[in-house]
Amino acid sequence: MPTIKIIDAIKIDIYMREHPPPHFHAIYAEYEELIEIDTLNTYIGKLPKQQRKKVTDWAVDNKEYLLEIFNQLNPRL
Predict the structure, then answer these.
(1) How confident is residue 13, by pLDDT bands cut at 50, 70 and 90?
(2) What is the pLDDT of residue 77?
(3) Average pLDDT for residues 63-67, to the nearest whole number?
(4) What are the beta bridge partners of residue 58?
(5) Residues 6+ apart with CB under 8 A from 19
(6) pLDDT tens by residue, 19-60
(7) Closest Cα partner for 12 from 48, 49, 50, 58?
(8) How far is it, in rounded angstroms, from Cα 61 to Cα 59?
(9) What global pTM score does this model have?
(10) DSSP characters for the chain?
């Protein structure tokens, strides 16, 4: 489970052996949200509003990078 980015104490992780749709995990304190890479919609979970905005602001500019890492770690999907 590599952490690919840390944004103000929010860890962005992408795991191996994942399931579709392509997504990443945003983890902040006791909160965790799985966010779909293509749409940036919530798959499951919830971050506080301010932290979610920071994550999605970063993710908008890094969708290709996120998808590349997801596909490297999950080549069978």
Answers:
(1) very high
(2) 80
(3) 98
(4) none
(5) 77
(6) 999 999 999 999 999 999 999 999 999 999 999 999 999 999
(7) 58
(8) 5
(9) 0.94
(10) --EEEEETTEEEE--SS--SSPEEEEEETTEEEEEETTT--EEEEE--HHHHHHHHHHHHTTHHHHHHHHHHH-TT-
One-letter amino acid at 45 equals G
How many CB atoms sit inside 10 A of residue 66's CB?
A: 22
User: Is the preceding omega at residue 21 within 30 degrees of 0, hence cis?
Assistant: yes
* CA distance linking residue 40 with residue 30, whole number of Å: 21
Angle between the N-to-C axes of helices 49-60 and 63-73, in degrees from 0 to 180, rounded to the nearest 10:
90
